[in-house]
Amino acid sequence: MIDDLANDTVAALRTIRRRPAAYLGAFALLTLGVGAVTLVFSLVRGVLLESLPFAEPERLVSIWERSDEPGALTEEAPRRAKNVVSPANFLDWREQSETVEKMAAFAVTAANLTEVGDPRRVRLGLVTEGYFETLGIEPEVGRLFAPEEMVADSGHPTTVLSHALWRTVFGEDPAVLGRRVQVDGRDLEVIGVMPPGVELDMGEAAGTLGAPADLWTPLPITEQWSQRRGRWLLVVGRLGPGVSVDSASAELDTIAERLAVEYPAFNEGWGVTVSGLHDHVTSTVRPTLLLLLGAVLLVLVIVCANATSLLLTRAAERSNEMRVRGALG
Asked: pTM of the predicted model, to two decimals?
């Protein structure tokens, strides 16, 4: 058997040496096709299939207000289905919901960072109490905001840095804790640094309010939040154990109906949209990635067909040779 294998191998190498272009062309086509599929599938797997870098990410949801006014099924439908949230409604949801175990609000705004080399433009995340706890993330260095730092005029303004900002601006200096920086002229003490990759991007539905943050500061809840005016918050929640997204959606819609009756001037025609957080953050890129994956699979099929055609053509050219070989045994 070993002798037969050696003879076949030698014969194959001689065949390739006589006509290298056909075989190298087939090999190159297959390599190109398989490489493209592998690359795109790795991208799809990393974006669509891997879970978010948070604790128990399957329990995380994004919560939006939904406009139920006539004409919602138009080109503005995505924005109407996922609208930013009123602070007063957020407080009512958080107080009355039994399916959402934890709930927090945030917004991202542009700011100027100074007192650290050259001034630079950064994205500042304003977060309510429990934001990081809701997502289930702990700082890599330092600590999170203390309750007394979450109130207005606490007298001790603090900030938590993203890992990217810590690396690029502070050179990953572990002595950054306790350092003071200025953000839009406000003096802040650095108390923590987040792990890499936990910056949340809420996509097109949120606009700039949902961009990944470079650093975070407390967003105090004041008496003005109880007034029914304005919608500008983004809301994330953590479902209770065993609670489904549909159950939470039904409960929050019921709460929204009660609020519409209680505050018709502000809440009439508004419902609630609850989406799994992973489904939401990948919703804008999912169609493109799946289309791209389908395209490269089609390319692979075409490549395999072309490679097969090349080899069949070569086999047809050698038909006389194979008949002679067969006759000679």
From this structure: 0.74
